[in-house]
């Protein structure tokens, strides 16, 4: 697991998993179909990516394909870092 995927997994587990949910997040946990990402949680994740990772996600990238799991988010972040 890369440093980026570890940061994302930790953030999601600590900040987006609701108390009482029995979800253990890893890099392939389906974020949308599991209900972990809704509009409010997505906004929190985008804020984390901007402030803590240093990558602003443009509106054109706000597509469910880019937020399926930590692997797809990390791939999108790496792509944006090289632009």
Automatic annotation (TrEMBL):
Family annotation (Gene3D superfamilies): ACP-like
InterPro entries named in the record: ACP-like_sf, PP-bd_ACP
PROSITE patterns reported for this sequence: CARRIER
Occurrences of domain Carrier (ranges): 1-83
Family annotation (SUPFAM superfamilies): ACP-like
Protein name per its UniProtKB record: Acyl carrier protein
């Amino acid at each position: 697991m890369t440093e980026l995927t570890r940061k994302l997994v930790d953030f999601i587990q600590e900040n987006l998993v609701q108390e009482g949910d029995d979800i253990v997040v890893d890099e392939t946990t389906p974020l949308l179909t599991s209900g972990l990402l809704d509009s409010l949680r997505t906004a929190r994740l985008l804020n984390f990516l901007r402030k803590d990772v240093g990558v602003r996600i443009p509106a054109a990238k706000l597509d469910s394909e880019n937020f399926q799991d930590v692997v797809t988010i990390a791939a999108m972040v790496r792509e944006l870092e090289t632009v």
